């Protein structure tokens, strides 16, 4: 069976345009945030117009062509269907310096190339940041070799291949390795300097939708407060009559579970994250003091005293 083809930065593919707000008529000055159209002749000497996949990868995606338009992500790869049509763009969403970024497969029809004031094309989408962050994460299949997608790597490697002549492959490999090490150094430095507590906490985690959480996995998960400090862990869950999770009972305080106070927090008030190892983390929109002052959970009286016993807040 043929596997689906996933284009990488090494692939130079002429892509027909999904949608254009304006036709480009003059060759623009080079801008590494823009996409450029060009004309070319095919095998049958037929003229065609399009842009390169290698020019598209690494470009930012905005919500409009305005100079101050919100940037919602960056194109990391292009997915090509079995019959050769461009199906989707892999867009990196969220994170900081690539840390904590989530890849989302965006239908190519939801991207538009819009001419900027300089007559260069900017990639825009009608998808909101909220929609992209809530979308399921794209996971690269294990059987596809990992390729570099940084635009800086492509420029440096291409320049080395043009200039070096003999031995260029070895030099390009050294450049890739050096850039990878530099990027890792920058990431590690960013983790230790200049990040807020929230950014530091989220750096190695990916958010999970509530619908993907079951009670078995939730029990035992560590819970963090609004300041991203360890509050305690989930000791049990409260289910509705139809088996849905209504609340997580958080054991607050105590030592090794001794002397902890159980507090019922509404399931809808919580956010859920996991790290690369699959460990589940829970973020609660409360301070430790608020949980200390909240009513203790009592399974025997919960149904009759639910309104006073269930802690509800806005998920952060």
TrEMBL record:
Gene3D superfamilies: PRC-barrel domain. Keywords: Signal. Residues 49-127, 215-284 form the PRC-barrel domain. Residues 1-21 form the signal peptide. This is PRC-barrel domain protein. It comes from Polymorphum gilvum (strain LMG 25793 / CGMCC 1.9160 / SL003B-26A1). The lineage of its organism: Bacteria, Pseudomonadati, Pseudomonadota, Alphaproteobacteria, Rhodobacterales.
